[in-house]
Amino acid sequence: MQLSDFSPAPNQGGNPELYEIENRAVDPKGLVLGALAEIAPWRGRSLVDLGCGSGFWLGCYADAAEVIGVEPDPGLVPLAAARDASARVLTGSAEHIPLPDASVDVVHARFAYFWPPRCEPGLQEVLRVLRPGGTLVVIDNDWQNGDFAELLRASAGSAAMGGGVRTHAWWSERGAERTEVLSEWAFDSRDDFAAVLRMEFPDGTADAWLEQHPEATGLSYGFVLFSVRQG
After folding, report:
1. What 3-state class would DSSP assign to 219?
2. Which residues contact 152 (CB under 8 A, 6 or more apart)?
3. CATH number for the domain including 144?
4. 168 lies in which domain range?
5. Which bin fits 163, alpha (ψ -120 to 50), beta or left (φ > 0)?
6. Is the peptide bond before 214 cis (omega within 30 degrees of 0)?
7. Into how many domains does the chain fold?
8. Which residues, listed in sequence order, are joined to residue 183 by a DSSP beta bridge?
9. 3-state helix vs strand vs coil in the chain, percent to 5
10. How many CA atoms lie within 13 A of 210 on its CB side?
């Protein structure tokens, strides 16, 4: 299937094994998941993980009535499908969600697609599949708070990662609610931490930060959650 809005992710798509280590280090206290559950509870409801990647987060929604992963990368779809037998994984994208109108209650998009200016079609497609009262929650980087924000601001290539003032303004214009969560990355080893940081910031920004923090095995990480309700 050819998906016109699909661009391979250089981190997860390029190195899924290392990205798995990154996922395990993200938000160890579950602060982001707690915020997601408060904004749009999924217990007993139908939930879509849009851009689910290798399916790492699918198991977090076990108390949903139905969990559906939607992923455009042909290399990641089979990984996600094998992750959790209780979840259904479909090939699709933000602009091509293979579900009927008004068929789901919650859609999550974690660092996937929703960076302006060309993401309006994806938003409309999500609103199409949401039931009245349903909610889209987009998880993005906070560019102001936490050590990771410092790296984003320092990196010459960070604009390609999306986010920032333009993204926040775009969501505000569409009436999205904004929730900030300050969490962390916590790795088991310095080597894992350094490898992930270099994957995310291959322009030398990671090396400079690691040199300045020789004992670090993690960092503080700010998230911004944008939520839009249907109807």
Report:
1. strand
2. 141, 143, 158, 161, 163, 164
3. 3.40.50.150
4. 16-229
5. left
6. no
7. 1
8. 221
9. 35, 25, 40
10. 16
Q: Say if 35 falls within a structural domain.
A: yes
DSSP state for residue 99 in the 8-state scheme: S
Give residue 157's region: left, alpha or beta (phi > 0; psi -120 to 50): alpha
Q: Does residue 9 fall inside a structural domain? A: no
C-alpha 152/C-alpha 159 separation (Å) is: 8
Residues 94 and 73: their CA atoms lie apart, in Å, by: 12
Token pair for residue 51?
């851009």
Instruction: Give pLDDT tens digits for 43-57.
Output: 999 999 999 999 999
- 8 pLDDT above the threshold of 70: yes
66-71, strands of its sheet edge to edge: 88-91, 66-71, 46-50, 104-110, 130-141, 218-229, 177-186
**Residue 97: what residue type?**
I
Residue 153: CB atoms within 10 A of its CB come to 12
DSSP string of 23-72, one letter each residue: HHHB-TT-HHHHHHHHHS--BTSEEEEET-TT-TTGGGGTTBSEEEEEE-
Q: Which amino acid is present at 62?
A: A
Tokens of residue 54, six digits = 């290798």
Helix (H, G, I), strand (E, B) or coil at 138: strand
- Packing angle, helices 205-212 and 190-200, rounded to 10: 150
Per residue in 114-167, pLDDT (tens digit) is: 988 889 999 999 999 999 999 999 999 999 999 999 999 998 665 555 567 788
Q: Are 34 and 224 in contact (CB under 8 A)?
A: no
Residue 10 lies in a domain: no
